[in-house]
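User: I'm curious whether this sequence folds into something compact or stays loose and floppy. Could you predict its structure so I can see for myself?
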Amino acid sequence: MKTRDESLELLKQYTSDPFLLQHALTLECVMRYFAEKEGEDVDYWGLVGLMHDLDFEQYPDQHCQKTQEILRDNGYDEDFIRAVASHGYSIVTDIKPEKKMEKILFATDELTGLIGACALVRPSKSVQDMNLKSLKKKFKTASFAAACSRDVIARGADMLGWELDDLLQQTLDAMKACEDKID
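Assistant: Here's the prediction. I'll summarize afterward.
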């Protein structure tokens, strides 16, 4: 397995946009949080989260496709590549999330963006004082953070066999635990 430093260096070769880097770091931390809860490999899950949008800035029309090529060329194993690419299921790839880690990645990718947008409009600019009720209100407002697909989030909850409220709350908890760890 590649190290975090090697992976972060590769990510930065393809991603310079501060927002996209912040999103990658957020999803890394969220995936580490869920891995710990699930008793899984925290470093592996974290790297999957970190690398999930590797190609998005430079190759938006080939998202998830180009990532597979780049990761393969840089010596990542096929299970890792599959996991990373599965987050684009039914949108840009036909790689269906099968493992719990893949399902969590699929479900939380869009959701972390929504939660991040919610935080930005709060006076505190933080998730620390956000609650589920507030998040649900923004979730139901389709015009708010419209690029964050509510359908993908809901399908992710279904894939996991979780109630939507459970996914929202657990991801919010993960982001609260991560907020001070992300540069």
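Summary: The chain has nine helices and no strands. The chain has one domain: 4-181.
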